[in-house]
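From: lab user (bench 3)
To: helpdesk
Subject: output format question, protein + pyridoxal-5'-phosphate

Hello, I'm new to running complex predictions and I'm not sure whether the block I got back is the full result or only part of it. Here's what I submitted:
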Amino acid sequence: METIAERLKSVQTTIKQSTLEAHRAPNSVKLLAVSKTKPVSDIVQAYEVGQRLFGENYVQEGIEKIQELQKLDDIEWHFIGPLQSNKTRVVATHFDWVQSVDRLKIAQRLNDQCPADKELYICIQVNIDDDPNKAGIKSAELNDFVDAIAKMPNLLLRGLMTIPKGQQTPEQQQNSFRKMADLFNALKTTSPNIDTLSMGMSGDMEQAINNDSTMIRVGTAIFGKRNQTKESNAT
Ligand SMILES: *Cc1c(COP(=O)(O)O)cnc(C)c1O
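Helpdesk reply: Thanks, we reran it on our side. This is the complete output you should expect:
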């Protein structure tokens, strides 16, 4: 069986090769290690071989890990799951990024509850395929959403995040990724701080990198098959 360090290395090799093949600059794609349902000992193994960006989906589980790993203070924690309004305060307090913002009410609460000395980085989640089973705003709503967030002083919009529909043909998948790349590149021309297109997971990282993704979110390919948690069972 491969270790976490070995799997991490192989994902890094994939990133490097895909970046080269897409004629993109070296180091233009970041790796977010998605550690949901995995124990802190797994996070520490990845940390020890240099991984610093970690993503969590469930509020309670994520906060517990952040607190337990407080001494590893150069970890950047990304919240990437569904967020209810009664959890915004703890998320704004403990996480560095929230990638799953798709309601203005949630954005406003994150802004209002963000600690005074902190700027919270956010991505807007876009439901690029209008999939009824997926979170995210419609692409037609993006400009108004961006304008509203620009008025929230404690939030800094860094970019867009998406989870494309599963089980698409290669052509459909390419089409979804391309639509996201177009939205991202248009947004970059009007908003100076936009540098993040969070797109691609274990099954589709090469295609995402080929379509301008700047951050892939990888769970299974690093940590193996997911465990069940109380929170993931409940939702
Ligand atoms: C679980 C999850 C991932 C990682 O998925 P894998 O297929 O295991 O790589 C990425 N993004 C989000 C939003 C997730 O919930």
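A quick orientation on your result: Residues 34, 36, 57, 80, 163, 201-203, 217-221 surround pyridoxal-5'-phosphate (CB under 6 Å). Let us know if anything else is unclear.
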